[in-house]
Amino acid sequence: MGQRKIIAKEIKTEILSRVKNGEKVTDLAKQYAVSDKSIYTWLHMETGDKVVSTIQHNKLKRENEELKKLIGEISLELSLGKKNRAC
Q1: pLDDT tens column, 12-61
Q2: d(C-alpha 85, C-alpha 87), whole Å
Q3: Any residues with CB less than 8 A from the CB of 18 and at least 6 apart, and which?
Q4: Gyration radius of the chain over CA positions
Q5: Start-to-end CA span in the chain (Å)
Q6: Which of 15, 49, 17 is closest to 32 using CA atoms?
Q7: What does pTM read for this prediction?
Q8: How far apart, in whole angstroms, are the C-alpha atoms of residue 74 and residue 30?
Q9: Could you say which DSSP state residue 5 is in?
Q10: If exposure means fewest CB atoms within 10 Å of the residue's CB, which of 20, 25, 51, 83 is most exposed?
Q11: Rounded distance, CA 52 to CA 40, Å?
């Protein structure tokens, strides 16, 4: 088995704060060289059953932003298409 690495409380707090602000667990796990399983365990210990809803909320926020961007791009394309046909 691999050697267990002790993570300072301040680092755990920083990671959890960043997860709650919408950053991806997998990205943070790579950045801090910890397993994503550890981060999920810390989240569960800190928030209990609210972990899933926090993660789902962040995922939905990212998806919503992506959809808004797509709608904007499509609206722009449609607008430009109408202008070109009017000329």
Answers
A1: 999 999 988 888 889 999 999 999 899 988 888 877 666 556 777 778 88
A2: 5
A3: 28
A4: 20
A5: 71
A6: 15
A7: 0.56
A8: 35
A9: P
A10: 83
A11: 9
